[in-house]
Amino acid sequence: MTVDLLVVGGTGLLGGELVRRAIAAGRRVVATHHTSAPGDGGTWRPLDLRDPAGVRSLIDELGPAAIVNAAYVQQGEDLRAITATAPGVAADAAAAVGARFVHVSSDVVFRGDIVAPLDEHTPTDPRTDYGRAKADAETAVLIADPGAVVTRTSLLWGGPVVGAQERLVLDPATTFFTNQVRCPLRVDRLAAALLELADRPEITGVLHVAGAEAVDRLTFARRLAPGLGVDPTRLRGVVDRSGTRPDHLHLDSARARRLLAAPLPGVAADT
């Protein structure tokens, strides 16, 4: 089987959307899972990202034309192995077989204390362990494969199943931080952009791929609420004074909008 696309981390919100869209487009897709494959068709392979030899072996065996790495964990004992180290291993293996490598990173590589749009040239300064793992992965990927593209995105929502952002809105006990600003993007929008990037090897380095609208967490939740049958006025806001999380993460995605055909609208346009 000739593999057009390997999706690493195919069981997550983004990974599942990538698999569905790629199959619908007629691509020959293989996706990886850690514990069990979804029962929705497709070609699935088990992969333990904590095992560098296993990562290299699978990529060498499949020899895909392109790889999108959507796998990560946000915390726990495997944070460094999966989120920080595995992407560099996969990028190195991709370069060895001539595969296009697209890595998904995050806005949390920034500290969040700059109240202005952050472009690709803004220095990273992560505040959290997860942010540090994501930043280290970016460096490792681009060292291993200078022809790769590292896409930084923001909060994801939408899709055929209720995701993390929607679950927060549905939980009446949730309060939403009014001083945390992000650029949410509907998951199918990001998936379309990533699949386009898989076919655009001339685009390399870091690329911000996020929504066009910078909104605080309460505003974002209130935009999602009507579609979930929730009264937006019942959602409560609070200021996060812990100092442990980034506050203002306004990704400037102007370069992506110039380069890509895939649209990247804000939440207001998609709700």
Describe this structure in words.
Helices cover 35% and strands 17% of the residues. It contains nine helices and 13 strands. It has helices at residues 13-24, 52-62, 79-97, 129-144, 164-170, 187-198, 217-224, 254-259, 267-270; strands at residues 5-8, 29-33, 43-46, 66-69, 100-106, 149-153, 156-157, 175-177, 181-182, 185-186, 205-208, 215-216, 236-238. The strands form four sheets. A seven-stranded parallel beta sheet has the order 3-2-1-4-5-6-11, sandwiched between helices.
The strand line-up of the biggest sheet is 3-2-1-4-5-6-11
| Helix and strand element order | EHEEHEHEHEEHEEEHEEHEHH
**What's the helix count?**
9
Report how far apart the termini are.
Answer: 40 Å
Outline the biggest β-sheet.
Answer: 7 strands, parallel
Note poorly predicted spans: none
Number of strand segments:
13
Looking at the structure, what is the overall shape? globular
Average pLDDT number: 96
How much of the sequence lies in strands comes to: 15-25%
Share of helix, binned: 25-40%
Q: Structural class of the secondary structure composition?
A: alpha/beta
What integer value in Å does the Rg equal? 18 Å
What would the keywords be for this entry?
7-stranded parallel β-sheet; 9 helices; 271 residues; single chain; two-stranded parallel sheet
Write the layout of secondary structure elements.
Layout: E1 5-8, H1 13-24, E2 29-33, E3 43-46, H2 52-62, E4 66-69, H3 79-97, E5 100-106, H4 129-144, E6 149-153, E7 156-157, H5 164-170, E8 175-177, E9 181-182, E10 185-186, H6 187-198, E11 205-208, E12 215-216, H7 217-224, E13 236-238, H8 254-259, H9 267-270
Helix pairs in contact: 1-6, 2-3, 3-4
